[in-house]
Amino acid sequence: xxxxxxxxxxxxxxxxxxxxxxxxxxxxxxxxxxxxxxxxxxxxxxxxxxxxxxxxxxxxxxxxxxxxxxxxxxxxxxxxxxxxxxxxxxxxxxxxxxxxxxxxxxxxxxxxxxxxxxxxxxxxxxxxxxxxx
Length: 133
Known about the structure:
The chain is mainly α. The chain folds into 2 domains: 1-78, lambda repressor-like DNA-binding domains (434 Repressor (Amino-terminal Domain), Orthogonal Bundle), CATH 1.10.260.40; 88-133, no CATH class. It has helices at residues 8-28, 34-41, 45-53, 60-70, 74-77, 81-86, 91-107, 110-124. The longest helix is centred in the first third of the chain and has 21 residues, at 8-28. The two termini are 27 Å apart.
């Protein structure tokens, strides 16, 4: 669930970006429809529309997933998201997060692997990752 305090303006900004990136992805994947994308996420087509229009706030975890799928940095949209998502993780919590990341990297295709590892290495080196559009 999205955290309280996400303004209508923020919801609209996020919705416009997500819609724009979705349209970019459609140009790369012509068979992608709003319906198939909604199915991929596990939500209704109507909820995707509500995200696009800013009517409904995008939950934090879903925003993180959308950032990966649509190639944008969710932390740029919500600067406090990193702290909210990862602060206070115990060692076992960190181990689980790292385990999930490694599992994802092992299962994804070469293009996605390259994209994700470039973002990680850019972050670790203090640089900004280049996001393809």
